[in-house]
Known about the structure:
There is one protein chain. This protein is of the alpha+beta class. It has helices at 65-70, 162-167, 185-194, 202-207, 212-217, and strands at residues 8-18, 21-27, 41-44, 47-54, 58-63, 81-86, 105-115, 118-124, 138-141, 144-152, 155-160, 178-183. It is 15% helix and 38% strand.
Amino acid sequence: MFTGIIEALGCVADLKLRGGEWRLTVTSGTLDFGDVILGDSIAVNGVCLTVTRLAQDLFEVDVSNETMQYTTLHGLSNGSKLNLEKALTPTKRLGGHIVSGHVDGVGELLDLRPDGASIRMDFRAPDDLAKYIAHKGSICIDGTSLTVNSVSGATFSVNIIPHTQAETIIQDYRVGAKVNLEVDVIARYLERLLLGDKAADEKSSSAQTLTRSLLAENGFV
């Protein structure tokens, strides 16, 4: 688990296909590796990956073909900047929100504009994720925990304060950029929970979505 508070920036040192899957080597001069051991998890642009090799200022992870297919990691190249966060420990402050590191889909930056010292950014999420995005709710973009300022259909906006601009790869975003999105884990589990016994029925489970009528049936509205 993670918090969505980026601890350091890194960059891709190498990305190669080995034995049918991908090996990613990441360097970082600012991430503290003192408490990292083999098998630990590190979120790379919001994707939870397992450390398979450690050195003084780098680590390696194996990336499955499925992860490459469903995230933006397939677009990385040597020198690409990365958001990094080590896994949450019981004594760490939960400064952002609960993040699993399991990407739900890829979004696109539609617009960005100044808003005082901040930057307002509009993103479009995949249609099937729109129901999980709520005004003033939390969303994780490339591993960064952000608050949804507004939402309309599958389009939502966030406000990027100067500190976040300086400490994450968001500073390099341009219109058209593709980003990893992770919606609030509570919303995902709530939808599944409301199915009740129907969750075991493949047809019912696959067809059922979180709707106002479903919430009403279960006493939420």
